Known about the structure:
alpha/beta; Rossmann fold; 10 helices
Amino acid sequence: FTDHVALGNEEWNPWDADEKNELAASQQRYEANLKMIKYGRSHLEQTSLRVQIWGKAAIGLYLWQHIFGGHLEPADVIAQWREGSQNAGKTYFSFLTGPSVVPGYFSVEAEHVVLVLNGREPAKVAYATQWLHYAQTLMETRKIQHVAVVLLGNEQCNNAWIQPYLKRNGGFVNLLFVTYDYAFVNEEDIFQWPLGVATYRNFPFVEPSWSMLHDPRSYLCNFLGTVYKNSSRETLIEILKQDGLDKLCWIAAREQWQPQETNESFKNYQDALLQSDLTLCPVGINTECYRIYEACSYGSLPVIEDVMTPGDCGNSSVYHSAPLQLLKTMGAPFIFIKNWKELPAILEKEKKMSLQEKIQRRKKLLEWYRNFKAWMRQKFINILENSFMPSDKG
């Protein structure tokens, strides 16, 4: 494992944060207990489940910091080892991430583990597989009891490699949460998970401000991104230029994708989201993209090209109106279009909207996004508790 870097700071106590969390945790326990009384449950446990989350893919940060609202110590994003903890429902969650989190080099502090993995391409799959084998060994030696996986899936939904590891197929993984419209999602042991913001580019957790809600924005729309040859993105740029609409929108197109932003390009991108009423989301390799969630963070309404991309994503046994099933099921208040030719009419309407109407729309979007994350958190906790806790049916 080339990833392993020895921890230099031996005297650093990773459990320091616990005292600080105790107050918030007791408040959460109190609220959780009230809920349990409300549902007529007689047994009031504080936390009866301990779950350790191993964040070995950037979407782990979306799960922990954005959906769970959790903190990490140290705050430095390039630290070798970062961790956090919180109580939620009946569960005590701890989260570990960073290059120093390597199989066999850290203590396994819980009987239940959530592995956050990247399965987007062969090299990542090879690395993810090593983690699965490590977890399997821990299961076989009775060190842990249950394993769930949160997977950044392949953009064409080609995730066949994970199937043999699932319990339903004779493996040991109880639950799989996977991004994109994976056809095997069944809401029993395989669940769709949101892609979220690009945490691998250090996209931050954004706290909505008064000015984000109330200030007039300089641009009707924005699109900053790569324009692939013969893609609908080319059509989009043509349509904007034809009607001179590109003058009213913040458009910065490039021909080649760049995995890492420069500080300047990243600041530009955040400014564009903050300064535009709409964020245009043309399909890339998959319809779902980080841009959707990033636009929501800044109260800029996503305009989404609602078409299926080539590959194996699509209808599952529980969902039939793919793509973006998860977002649609949750009533996302976005503008969905089938063709960019619909855009001029949308922008015309936009020009006529009063600031007051736009403020209301931003409020609705930010409120929806906050609820969406809270709902995903609750759903995640419920699924783990239902699956990992011994059932009361005796």
